[in-house]
Amino acid sequence: MQMPTKYITVTGGVLSGLGKGIAVASIGHLLSSRLKIIPIKCDGYLNVDPGTMNPFEHGEVFVLDDGAEVDMDFGHYERFLGVTCKSRWNLTMGKVFNMVRKKERKGDYLGKTVQYIPHVTDVIKNHISEIVQEEKPDLVIIEIGGTVGDIENELFLEAVRQMKEDVGRDNIIYVHLTYVPVPYGVNEQKSKPTQQSVNLLKQRGIFPDIIIGRCPDFLTKEIKDKISNFCDVNTDAVITGLDVDDIYEMPIIFEQEGLPEIIHKKLNIYSPPDLRKWKKLVENIRNPDRQITVAMCGKYTKLEDSYASIIESFNHCSAHLSCKIDLKWVETTDLKDTSLLDGVDGLVVPGGFGSRGTEGKIEAIRLARERDIPFLGLCLGLQLAVIEFARNLCNLTGANSTEMDPDTPYPVIDILPEQKEITEKGGTMRLGAYPAALREGTVVHSLYRSNEVSERHRHRYEVNPDYHLILQEKGMVFSGISPDRRLVEFIELPQLKFFAATQAHPELKSRMENPAPLFYGFVKACLS
Known about the structure:
This protein is α/β, with parallel strands linked by helices. The chain has 17 helices and 21 strands. Helix 1 runs parallel beside helix 3.
């Protein structure tokens, strides 16, 4: 008889930013050896997706293969679980209310008063059920965004509370992530915030099976006994969520704490973890043989979450090349001091929107090209590399992107013709995975070891076809183009140590066990 689908629901308490996404990803990794697992994220905000949010608001926007713009936690899910997530797996309250409104307009509610319970909660549960029917997973891990007690996630909490009746109590467990502080001067782990958070959860009819306590140190036996006693969970089900320097240590910590065995027992499943390769990679990050410094030129550098996937891509390279990569954050809205690039082994110009900081980035790219400092351009980084090349090597003075300067005499970067009529910002870009044909004999082709690759995109502007010929005549190589030959996807300057850029975001597909090829090649060049 086929095993029914099992469910793990992960909630958070006390304060935000405790790392529920990392906990979900780590639990999934530990259980993935024999089980098909899918993660679902429920976010309480009323945006349909985070695509139009400023990175300062909510961190990086993560783009999926199917073009969905989702929460950055999906990056952790993909990197830890090795799955390719889908749009439907991200459920925001904005999406939920959209679905309810459409059903009401169609008359699906047969004239009844539409209420939060049961109508909104039913939409949430039905959506999860539909995903299970489509994907047929062995295990679903549901992360409820926000903190217990927030008004935004009350309907999601009510929906997952009801699920224990729908799927059977033996097929669902509730994991609650809390904070165990050690106040300065007291040097004692405190359980009161956890007790109060669990009480808030119980008031909503959810009784946690496992409690993970985020703490600077391993939880003591005394504090585990106290949390067990006051929160009605077994002592062995109180797990340390240790503060770690590197998030990839979390599956190792959870394994040490016995978390996989507890889940096996509670859900009557068996999928033992094999962390041998993972531990070796983590050891390489912890104890690197070499060290490099890479300048990151962006306009969101004050919030590192804005570039989370890029940081993780470098971590993956660190794990495989056993080198420490120090990222030197350079705020390009005020890049007048060219000495900021002194002593760096490489330069990365990441994606972004708008004109703020672009001239500083262009200047940084010029310095990298002239000094033969390894350069990697991502999305906007490719566009600015083309602008710099056009201005200084093609003698196209004033060349620019029409995004930055609509009146530029040489629009080497321009908006897609089919995008010019679009006024709504949400979901109107070239989004998701697109194929590119790679040119043999190029650096990019040697790194991907393939004639065709697929990378994810998130942009509106492209290299203007009117300028393809002059750019190539002056020495720029288009190492990857779209299959219809209209669009430039990769560029390089082969005479330099490493100067490559892509219109895509290869960081979105980088994995701990399989680093993004462009990043890997860039780091190797920096090391040389």
